[in-house]
Amino acid sequence: MKFGLVVKNDSFYVQIDSDTPRLCAVYNGKYLPSGRFSYVTFPAPITTAEPPCIFIQNSPARPDDVYDGMTVNGGPGAWTGFTLSSNNTSYLPTGKWFAAVFASKSTADYGVRMWGADKSVIYDSGAVPIIFTRANHSWAYQGVVTVGSQGRGYAWRNALTGPLLSDEYFMINPFSRGILQYHFNAATLGVRFNYAGNYLQVYAFSAVSVWTDLGSPAAMFARLPGT
Questions:
Q1: Higher-confidence residue: 54 or 207?
Q2: Would you tell me how many other CB atoms lie within 10 Å of the CB of residue 104?
Q3: Is the pLDDT of residue 1 over 60?
Q4: CA atoms of 35 and 33, how far apart (whole Å)
Q5: How far apart are CA 213 and CA 29, in angstroms?
Q6: Do residues 98 and 118 make contact, with C-beta atoms less than 8 angstroms apart?
Q7: Are 26 and 121 in contact (CB under 8 A)?
Q8: Which alpha helices (H) appear in 60-212, and where do they start and end?
Q9: 33-70: string of b/e by CB count within 10 Å (b at 16+)?
Q10: CA nearest 51: which of 197, 176, 218, 166?
Q11: Where are the domains of the chain?
Q12: pLDDT-derived band of residue 18, with 50, 70 and 90 as boundaries?
């Protein structure tokens, strides 16, 4: 940039950039089941053009719950929430979440605040920044599995292995688009953290065969301190 403000830390990572907003949490909370679904509605619509980044942590108190679908609700300029689902009412989607956007929200009574040329807030020292912890896009196909009464399922595991911190979450957006079936329509995908193996695991359930090559969706982990 020719003009503006850039703040770097001791490792020369950019902490504040007046041209490029950082990823900040705007809402967070817990998700609870309603039958085999969990519906989350944001306190107010998120008005960004791109969908918010939704991070969840499936409850370690229910480590065997298997999710099979994830959807970000709403549309550009009015993202209203998200939905998680399972194929079995014995699995009750339960955990905690946060939504983040590349923008800032005016929250602090004191501190530093900056506006962009379009008059939007691009930095607020009171907005909670997201701390990315790890990422990987390598997946191994685990084969056809039967999970309770859910019937035939397909499972993949991520190459990253390590325990999930108490304030660490994973992003569901890359899995909300589903996976192709042989009839060229999509089967829904669900992702959960496998606490027994300490890795991210994806499931798809379908009456017909699905493509076993999951592709390279990103497994993105981030911390939200204090949650």
A1: 54
A2: 25
A3: no
A4: 6
A5: 34
A6: no
A7: no
A8: none
A9: beebebebebeeebebeebbbbbbbbbeeeeebbbbbb
A10: 176
A11: 6-131, 135-223
A12: low
For a pLDDT cut of 90, what percent of the chain falls above it? 49
Q: What is the pLDDT of residue 88?
A: 78
With H, G, I as helix, E, B as strand and everything else as coil, classify residue 208.
coil
Q: What is the pLDDT of residue 89?
A: 76
The token pair at 84 is 């998680």
pLDDT tens digits for range 192-221: 999 999 999 999 887 777 778 888 889 999
Closest CA to 55 of 70, 43, 67, 66: 70
Q: Taking a C-beta distance cutoff of 8 angstroms, is the pair 71, 176 a contact?
A: yes
Examine the pLDDT at 58 and tell me if it is beyond 80: yes
Q: Which two tokens stand for residue 125?
A: 């020292």
Residue 172 Cα distances to 8, 97, 178, angstroms: 30, 10, 11
The one-letter code for the residue type at 63 is P
Distance CA 120, CA 36 (A): 39
Residue 137 one-letter amino acid: H
Backbone torsions φ then ψ of 219, nearest 5 degrees: -95, 105
In the three-class reduction of DSSP (H, G, I as helix; E, B as strand; rest coil), residue 174 is classed as: helix
Q: What are phi and psi of 84, to 5 degrees?
A: -115, 150
pTM of the model as a whole: 0.86
> What integer pLDDT is reported at residue 199 of this predicted model?
97
Q: Tell me the per-residue pLDDT of 74-110, one tens digit each, with 9 for 90 and over.
A: 999 999 999 999 877 788 899 999 999 977 666 667 7
